[in-house]
Write a structure and sequence with these properties.
10 strands, alpha+beta, Beta-Lactamase, 5 helices, single chain
Length: about 240
């Protein structure tokens, strides 16, 4: 088999595995998005504004999703566009799973615009990019200092009613968990693999030369874009 053909086979295998693991993450995100959209559209059909209680009603579905045996994310929720919720300039309904068997807890952040600790989520890339592109997005790896305090990837999808942007639904996934799921499915490969995000940060690596979270500024050279994700894939034969 030629080197080019071998490389194509490795790329195809990596892409298939990544698609499968990402789908396990985005399944719960899509469920949250649809549940939130139903609340928004029900209020709109009645000619009233969405209230906080309407979105607080998502807490049970969110907890159930997080407690499912096959749930990959450790955090799930919806982050609402400014002034969509009645008398609430900013609002989020976000729940996160604690360690071990502890029940999920609601994320409490400072949304007071006059506070020193104000959490201005509208400028966060996981919110701003889907708002601009109307497409799903992934941010990270990064340390989630406002949420889980873990090293995570954040996956988000826009919540759209017709073309109105109402916010994002999203999930936090620990980097180590994402990596272990992908590497377990990949098994042994006759090549080294590196996946790089749109900020040139390594998202996944089978190479000891490129650790997750490190920067690789030459990632455009020979990289294959991954459809539906802001990631690029690089492969090269394993050194012997």
């Amino acid at each position: 088999m030629s080197a080019a053909r071998a490389s194509e086979r490795v790329e195809a295998q990596v892409r298939a595995v990544l698609d499968g693991v990402v789908e396990r993450v985005l399944g719960p995100v899509a469920a949250v998005r649809e549940a939130a959209l139903a609340r928004f559209e029900e209020a709109r059909s009645q000619g009233v504004a969405v209230r906080r209680d309407d979105l607080h009603a998502l807490r049970e579905p969110l907890q159930e999703l997080l407690l499912a045996d096959d749930c990959v994310p450790v955090g799930l929720g919806v982050i609402v566009a400014p002034s969509v919720v009645d008398e609430q300039p900013l609002f989020l309904e976000w729940w996160q799973r604690g360690p071990g068997t502890s029940p999920p807890t609601r994320l409490e952040v400072d949304l007071n615009t006059h506070s020193v600790g104000f959490y201005d989520y509208v400028v966060a890339p996981w919110y701003a990019v889907p708002r601009r592109t109307r497409l799903q997005h992934v941010v990270g790896p990064y340390v989630d200092v406002h949420g889980t305090d873990r090293y995570v990837l954040t996956f988000t999808q826009p919540v759209l009613s017709d073309d109105d942007f109402l916010g994002v639904a999203g999930a936090d996934v620990p980097v180590g968990r994402f990596e272990s799921l992908v590497l377990h499915e990949l098994g042994d490969l006759p090549a080294e693999v590196v996946v790089v995000g749109d900020d040139d940060r390594v998202v996944l690596s089978t190479s000891s030369r490129w650790l997750v979270g490190s920067l690789r500024h030459d990632a455009d050279s020979g990289a294959t874009p991954l459809p539906g994700l802001p990631w690029r894939l690089l492969t090269w034969p394993t050194r012997h």
